[in-house]
Each structure stands twice: as structure tokens, then as C-alpha cells.
Amino acid sequence: MMFQKTKTSKKTKLALLVHEGGTQTNLKAIREAIDNARINAEISAVISDSQDATPILERVSPDYIVLNPDNTKALWNKGMYGNKAIQNFLDQKATYAGSSLHFLTNEFDFGPVLGKTFEKIEPDDTVESLYARLKKKENELYVEVLEKLCKTS
User: Fold this and answer.
1) Dmax over Cα atoms in the chain, in whole Å?
2) Can you name the residues that pair with 8 across neighbouring β-strands?
3) Contact indicator for 90, 127 with CB cutoff of 8 Å
4) Interior CA angle at 101 toward 12 and 114, to 5°?
5) Among residues of the chain, what percentage have pLDDT more than 90?
6) 3-class secondary structure per residue, the chain
7) Predicted confidence (pLDDT) per residue in 18-67, tens digit
8) pLDDT value at position 72?
9) How far apart are CA 81 and CA 77, in angstroms?
10) Which residues pair with 18 in a beta bridge?
11) How buried is residue 51: exposed, middle or buried, by Cβ count under 10 Å (0-12/13-18/19+)?
């Protein structure tokens, strides 16, 4: 999910909210893309996704806040997240598992879709194997979306 703010600088300022129990692979992918000049941005803050983040966000005044919702309930997988969501895909014998990025709205998961990715579920998939492939695609999706959002005019 992403929250948009009016741009005020040439280089886009990002604040990344991460879940303490997460794998931080999205953060790593975004940092590498910035280091390799794929994303024209600077990271203003990396903050735990807690209520304590609000004063910090106000102080750093980012152009975009990038949320990594590892602990967020998602409607499309029946209120499950992380490994439980992946297990649900396997239990339901789904053909594909997916991930999407949205602008943040008051309805949370209902903002305009910025990008989505899918991974075919193989017959011998485990939670770990499917999650690893889907997470790799999600990492790249974050980079692609931020690459577009952070271009200068």
C-alpha cells in the first residue's frame, strides 16, 4: 500500500514502514534499486509500522509512504496473511497466488491499484516454496511501481 503526498523536491523522499516480524525483502529490493539508480528517490526514514511512526513521518515529510503489510489482514484471502494466506491458497487448491500494491485510502485496501503480480501454484508447492517465489515477484513489483512514481518530469 502506498500513501501519496504532493511532491516538493527533485528527488522523491520515501518513508518505509516495515513489520518487525517480516523478512524485509521489499525494503532490501527498494534500497538496491535506489543504490542502482533505478528509483530516483532517497529513503527519509525506515520505521516500524506502529502508532509511534506518526510523529516521525510528520517530521521527515516524505513524498510517499511505503507500507509493507506483512501483518495486515487482506480480504481476498479471507482475512489471512503471510504463511496463513499461502496455506489458504494451497488448501483451496487455487491455481494462482497473487500480490497487489494500492494507493492507500480510508477503506485501506481499496485505493487505485498500482501493480499486481501472480505466481502459478505448482502441484508439489509448499508454503515455503510458493511464498519464496511470490515474494520475489512482489519485491520486483515494489521496485517497478516506485520507479514509475519517482521519475522526475
Assistant:
1) 49
2) none
3) yes
4) 70
5) 36
6) CEEECCCCCCCEEEEEEECCCCCCHHHHHHHHHHHCCCCCEEEEEEEECCCCHHHHHHHHCCCEEEECCCCCCCHHHCCCCHHHHHHHHHHCCCCEEEEEEEECECCECCCCEEEEEEEECCCCCCHHHHHHHHHHHHHHHHHHHHHHHCCCC
7) 877 777 888 899 999 999 999 999 999 888 867 777 788 888 888 888 87
8) 42
9) 7
10) 48
11) exposed
Do residues 18 and 47 touch, judged by C-beta distance below 8 A? Answer: yes
Amino acid at the residue 95: T
Amino acid at 94: A
The CB density around residue 52, as the number of other CB atoms within 10 Å, is 9
Block residue for cell numbers 516480524: 21
43 burial type by CB count under 10 A (0-12 exposed, 13-18 middle, 19+ buried): middle
